[in-house]
Amino acid sequence: MTVVELKDVTREHGQVRALRGVSLEVAAGELVAVMGPSGSGKSTLLNLAGGLDRPTSGSVTIEGRDLAGVKDLAALRRGSVGYVFQDLNLIPSLTAAENVMLPRELDGVRAGRARTEALAVLAEVGAEDTAGRFPEALSGGQRQRVAIARALAGERRLLLADEPTGALDTATGDEILHLLRTRADAGAAVLLVTHEPRYAAWADRVIYLRDGQIAEAGAVRLESAR
Ligand SMILES: Nc1ncnc2c1ncn2[C@@H]1O[C@H](COP(=O)(O)OP(=O)(O)OP(=O)(O)O)[C@@H](O)[C@H]1O
């Protein structure tokens, strides 16, 4: 089942064509890695796939709904899409657990249930001891885990991760990839932007962007890398 589909998508910023005629489908259970040089359009692709941005032309469909016809993109995103951003975006005045709870509460989930979910997902990512602490008191790796937990809370059927391993050491980066892989195996569609072939090796497919176009796409599954 296709979770997200981009059809002939172009995104222009003034004279800059960040994406040109990109078509891509990601199915439930699939982890797709997006690679390519700096400025090739990877973040633009991710933002469009998650409804954070709208295409200049072409269409984006999430779970069968063409985003062009969706008025409340924020509600659709909160319901279906989990993001892990490069800059994490944790709210400094909220504890780790509260950061994880926030999108769920915005979605109408009661605080008690949102907290229970948050604690469960923090445990899943190995960050249960961060629950009551504020972001500034956490290490980079812990913050990354909290951001991942926030993206995983609830039933996100589409996960978008932009360099989620950031500057993490290899062991922590591997754990993060393992979490994303596990979610894909459990039925989520996952799009992962990475510069690291090591992490792309966890994907079912890799697409390479160059100058806003898909230059090459291929299956991986380098079992030996796992
Ligand atoms: N809001 C914007 N206004 C103008 N140009 C933009 C904007 N966002 C992206 N661009 C341009 O679009 C192109 C693609 O940018 P994008 O951030 O998608 O690349 P990227 O592959 O994610 O790069 P990196 O690996 O450095 O994060 C670049 O030339 C960038 O300068």
UniProtKB/TrEMBL annotation:
Keywords: ATP-binding, Nucleotide-binding, Transport. SMART domains: AAA (SM00382). Residues 4-222 form the ABC transporter domain. GO terms for molecular function: ATP binding. CDD domains: ABC_MJ0796_LolCDE_FtsE. InterPro entries: AAA+_ATPase (IPR003593), ABC_transporter-like_ATP-bd (IPR003439), ABC_transporter-like_CS (IPR017871), ABC_transpr_LolD-like (IPR015854), MacB-like_ATP-bd (IPR017911), P-loop_NTPase (IPR027417). It comes from the Bacteria. It holds the Pfam family ABC_tran. PANTHER family: ABC TRANSPORTER RELATED, IMPORT ATP-BINDING PROTEIN. This is ABC transporter ATP-binding protein. It comes from Nonomuraea insulae.
